Amino acid sequence: MSTGELSAEAAAYFEEKHINSLLEELFHDVVLHLPDDPLQFLLHALDRKTTLRLLLLGPSSCGKRTQSRRIAQKYGVVIINADDVFREEISRKTESGEKLASCMQEGLPMPSDIASELIIRRLQEEDSRSRGWVLNGFPRTRSEALRLQAAGISPILFILLDVSSEVAVRRCDGRRYDPLTQNVYHMEFAPPPREMAVERMFEDDGSLAAVTSQWKYFDARKEELIGCYEPVFVRIDGDRPVDVVSQEIFEQVESRYVAV
């Protein structure tokens, strides 16, 4: 959208309030759904923006879990971690869970149809719809993003935490996963609370080789994901300290969607 005819004051307002991004997102939703009544569709879409729906993606060791917790604490949204959803399905010993377990054991990507169905089901639960959500680690491919869109699930903000492979590998050393709280800590950068029993934790995500492989997998697919969510996309440098990254995330949320 051109702002060539606008006054300097109006142009500054458009930039500060991200009006262009908002209009592009609405246009994207209309083209995607082709509603019979575009006006009612747009009114409903604007009303839905009062609930925060945030995609938080990035390669392994970029800090997704840490930032998800901080977003949830600040805005009261539900954290939906894709890996936790998959682990829960595996623990139920369902047919889908058995397929997921087999893929995990063999180091293969999760089947897109099963993974998407589980995530969509979780996003449609009452707490997610009423409180809003931050979805961590999904979608991982363009086909999964399209499945979410086909189900009518669209974020109002897509944040990519970009980290270099060197930083990802360095952060891998010292990471610990707590099976009780399902939180991930780092013994140096984000240590667990002092009162927490460190001995119950175990190293997260295996070897440095696994982290490097996961980083390459994500890096090869991130541009196609960005293309699916271009109107609401924001890239944030995840190489920086945790508090600095958190502050930029909060600024992006609050400058674009004051209602949350």
Topology:
Blueprint: H1 8-16, H2 19-33, H3 38-48, E1 53-57, H4 64-75, E2 78-81, H5 82-91, H6 95-106, H7 112-123, H8 126-131, E3 133-136, H9 142-150, E4 157-162, H10 165-172, E5 175-178, E6 183-186, E7 202-203, H11 208-228, E8 233-237, H12 242-256
Parallel strand pairs: 1-3, 1-4, 2-3, 4-8
Antiparallel strand pairs: 5-6, 5-7
Helix pairs in contact: 4-12, 5-6, 5-7, 7-9, 10-11
Unreliable residue stretches: none
In round numbers, the mean pLDDT is 82
Question: Overall 3D geometry?
Answer: globular
Rounded to the nearest angstrom, the distance between the terminal CA atoms is: 26 Å
Question: What's the CATH architecture of the domain at 49-82 and 128-255?
Answer: 3-Layer(aba) Sandwich
- Determine the CATH superfamily of the domain at 49-82 and 128-255: P-loop containing nucleotide triphosphate hydrolases
In DSSP terms (H or I, runs of 4 or more residues), the helix count works out at 12
Order the strands across the largest sheet as they lie in space.
2-3-1-4-8
CATH topology of the domain at 49-82 and 128-255: Rossmann fold
Largest sheet descriptor: 5 strands, parallel
The H-and-E topology, N to C, reads as HHHEHEHHHHEHEHEEEHEH
The SS-based structural class is alpha/beta
- Give the DSSP E fraction (strand runs of 2 or more residues): 5-15%
Determine the fraction of residues in helical runs and give it as a percent range. 40-55%
Return the CATH class of the domain at 49-82 and 128-255. Answer: Alpha Beta
Total beta strand runs: 8
CA radius of gyration: 19 Å
